[in-house]
């Protein structure tokens, strides 16, 4: 919401602008001590993480990722930020433990985003293909929130009959005044 307020006013009207992409923050703990029964090379794992989540010169952007953690699944996201905290080292300086704090952000393509939004605004022209069993009144209720506008829609589409509109007919639903 945009909460811009004019100078000298006592309140502001909240205007909807957009929904920002969602974030998912995770902390990955890397333990190369073998305490859990598995010895890993912490530095190699960090480098793999950076390779997968970093900039890809072949496509001129970071890779799209699928983050799945238990029942959480974030499809088509990118790494927004990451920080690495080294916790333990061998005497020679090789890292044994580290924590990667990472934040991923949704990266949905415009076509997918628009389809998921399912915007259905009565101030826009809609075009529907009438399916078997659908009626103009039912679609008017769906689009305008008022089934009684079916006569205006029929007039706008130059339909001879509102009762016998065959399935497969393309019907325009223009912006209408109630």
Key traits:
single chain, 178 residues, alpha+beta, Membrane-bound Lytic Murein Transglycosylase D, Chain A, 2 domains, four-stranded antiparallel β-sheet, two-stranded antiparallel sheet, 4 helices
Short description:
The protein is an alpha+beta fold. It has helices at residues 42-53, 110-117, 136-144, 150-156, and strands spanning 23-31, 55-56, 61-62, 65-69, 72-89, 95-106, 126-129, 170-173.
What does this structure look like?
With 178 residues, the protein is an alpha+beta fold. It is 20% helix and 31% strand. Helix 3 (136-144) packs across helix 4. The chain has helices at 42-53, 110-117, 136-144, 150-156; strands spanning 23-31, 55-56, 61-62, 65-69, 72-89, 95-106, 126-129, 170-173. The longest helix is centred in the first third of the chain and has 12 residues, at 42-53. 9% of the residues are buried. The protein is elongated, with a radius of gyration of 27 Å. The strands form three sheets. The chain has a four-stranded antiparallel beta sheet with strand order 1-6-5-4, with helices on one face. A two-stranded antiparallel ribbon has the order 2-3. The protein has a two-stranded antiparallel sheet with strand order 7-8. The model has no long low-confidence stretch (mean pLDDT 84). It has two domains: 23-115, no CATH class; 121-173, Membrane-bound Lytic Murein Transglycosylase D, Chain A, CATH 3.10.350.
């Amino acid at each position: 919401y945009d909460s811009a307020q004019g100078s000298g006013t006592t309140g502001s009207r909240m205007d909807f602008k957009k929904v920002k992409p969602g974030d998912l923050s995770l902390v990955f703990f890397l333990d190369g001590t073998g305490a859990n029964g598995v010895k890993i090379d912490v530095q190699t794992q960090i480098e793999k993480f950076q390779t997968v989540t970093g900039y890809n010169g072949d496509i001129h952007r970071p890779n799209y990722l699928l983050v799945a953690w238990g029942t959480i699944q974030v499809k088509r996201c990118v790494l927004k930020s990451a920080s690495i905290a080294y916790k333990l080292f061998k005497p020679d300086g090789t890292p044994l433990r580290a924590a990667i704090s990472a934040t991923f952000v949704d990266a949905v393509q415009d076509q997918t985003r628009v389809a998921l939004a399912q915007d259905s605004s009565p101030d826009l022209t809609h075009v529907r293909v009438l399916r078997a069993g659908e009626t103009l009144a039912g679609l008017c209720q769906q689009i305008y929130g008022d089934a009684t506008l079916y006569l205006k829609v029929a007039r706008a589409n130059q339909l001879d009959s509102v009762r016998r509109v065959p399935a497969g007919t393309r019907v325009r639903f223009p912006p209408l005044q109630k």
